[in-house]
Amino acid sequence: MSSFLPQKAKLLMTLRAQAIMQADILSAIETVPRELFIPENLHAHAYENASLPIGYKQTISQPYIVAVMTQSLELKKTHRVLEIGTGSGYQAAILARLSRRVYTLERLRPLMVSAEKRLKTLQISNITYRHGDGAKGWPEAAPFDRIIITCRVTEIPTALLDQLKEGGILIAPVGPSGKEELVRVKREAEGFEKKSLMPVRFVPMLAGTQA
Q: H/E element holding 69?
């Protein structure tokens, strides 16, 4: 919407100042209408660099964190990406503009249903959805070039590491509550190379599914 143009411009300036320099990521953030991924009463805050509640004790991540996680994935247009934690669908919308296909998995069925409807309204067609347990991943669609976990884990589930291609990258918030760090894992022939990127705050990954 044109009414958000000044707020979008300010957000993009903020992200550039925070070292988000990748043109395709900034373009995706500019193009995807974040206001459609949050409750209507919060629309005025859509382009603030802040996380916002989306119901069910879940949040839409701060645009800076979305950008950092996306940038850390080093995406190519040929990549197949697994996202654990669909939430509002905003991160999936950004990923879909930068990769070949996104497989997104959500344990809360109402969130998954509304995200799928929202993304189809935006005519984003290269996303596949599943209601399921994030810790188990999506074995029949594996291996993936990239995996992004959008909820905190105390340690990265083995099933997800197993579903990462050799040469692939996984990004996840890892650690105990309040002390989690964004971790980048690259799968090499001889094992996994891990690097801590920055402290973050995320809602925890929960086991099982919820209707």
A: helix 63-73
Please state which CATH number belongs to domain 51-199: 3.40.50.150
The DSSP output letter for 73 is: H
Q: Where are the domains of the chain?
A: 51-199
Residue among 158, 166, 170, 165 nearest 194 (CA):
170
pLDDT by 10-residue block (mean), the chain, 211 residues? 83 96 96 95 95 91 96 98 97 98 96 96 96 95 97 95 98 93 96 95 81 63
Residue 207: how many other CB atoms lie within 10 Å: 9
Q: What is the DSSP letter of 177?
A: T
What is the spatial distance between Cα 3 and Cα 200, in angstroms, rounded to a whole number? Answer: 31
Q: Is 125 labeled as catalytic in the residue annotation?
A: no
Question: Pick the catalytic residue: 2, 3, 27, 61?
Answer: 61
